[in-house]
Write a structure and sequence with these properties.
Layout lengths: L6 E5 L3 H12 L3 E5 L3 H9 L4 E2 L11 E4 L3 H14 L3 E4 L5 H6 L9 E4 L20 E5 L6 H13 L3 E4 L2 H24 L11 H7 L6 H10 L1 H24 L2 H22 L3
Parallel strand pairs: 1-2, 1-4, 2-3, 4-5, 7-8
Antiparallel strand pairs: 6-7
Helix pairs in contact: 6-9, 9-10
């Protein structure tokens, strides 16, 4: 494996970027902190997460840059970093195909990443240096990505405790739509239907089912628009499944209702089997 350097630029110091800067700093890395609002980078510096900078040119000698902005800003940030530094570049965006297509001319320097972790809480104040420990981080090389770049970015994520999985960008977007984006929409739909009479009755099941619905609409609208095709396919599949249930209920078909619910229980068991500590 290529040995990565120990100097990183983190651009976007919210929950994800702040947590990554904290994790790398704790492991002895030199970390440079950039944010569109310089006061946020200065606050992270005060917390001991690295050194605040105001321009990418100040990171000209960094080894790697990690872009932790909303997905709509990632491509522009990557181009700006590439022109001002010698860094290899990755990101933490929840969608990959559109970003990787936009950055195809930078294939020798940019490779997409997506850590499968986070929180509905946003901002530097919620940063956690252990956020990436034990999580799966997806690295998304294309056919044009040099193998040494893949190994380098794998090494970055392993340095903060992640387990790395490699998928091509299109496969990533389809899989993440199923595992994350469509479930977020279902949580939002359930939460939006909670009326005044029902709200006092909501308990643990509602809390667990709808937790992610408290996430930022601005952040999530960006993600969904970027992954519109895969999310749309997931919505169509979900509507079809709900219609199956609606038909079974209208017929009073208890066996069909039970089978419908069993498919959901089996899906949850698959998740439990994968995530259970070994």
């Amino acid at each position: 494996m290529t040995v990565i350097g120990r100097s990183a630029l983190v651009s976007g110091i919210g929950l994800m970027g702040g947590s990554l800067a904290a994790a790398l700093s704790r492991r002895g890395w030199r970390v440079l902190l950039h944010h569109r609002r310089p006061e946020v980078a200065r606050q992270a510096e005060k917390l001991g997460y690295g050194t605040a900078i105001t321009g990418f040119d100040e990171a000209h000698d960094a080894d790697v840059a990690i872009i932790c902005t909303p997905v709509g800003a990632i491509a522009d940030s990557a181009w700006a970093i590439a022109s001002a530094t010698r860094c290899v570049i990755t990101d933490v965006g929840s969608t990959k195909e559109r970003i990787c297509d936009d950055l195809a001319p930078l294939a020798d320097r940019f490779i997409g990443s997506h850590p499968m972790t986070g929180s509905h809480q946003q901002g530097l104040e919620h940063a956690d240096p252990d956020l990436y420990a034990g999580c799966v981080t997806i690295v998304t090389p294309t056919a044009a990505t040099p193998s040494e770049l893949v190994d380098t970015i794998d090494g970055l994520w392993r340095a903060v405790g992640s387990r790395v999985v490699r998928l091509d960008p299109a496969t990533h977007d389809r899989a993440v739509a199923e595992a994350s984006h469509v479930p977020h929409l279902l949580a939002s739909a359930a939460a939006a239907q909670l009326g005044e009479d029902a709200a006092p009755l909501a308990a643990g099941g509602f809390r667990d089912t709808t937790r992610v619905a408290a996430g930022s609409p601005l952040l999530w609208s960006d993600i969904l628009v970027h992954n519109a095709e895969a999310v749309g396919m997931g919505i169509d599949a979900t509507v079809a499944r709900l219609q199956e249930l609606r038909t079974a209920l209208s017929r009073g078909d208890r066996a069909a209702v039970e089978a419908w619910l069993e498919a959901g229980r089996s899906g949850r068991c698959r998740y439990d089997d994968i995530t259970r500590p070994r």
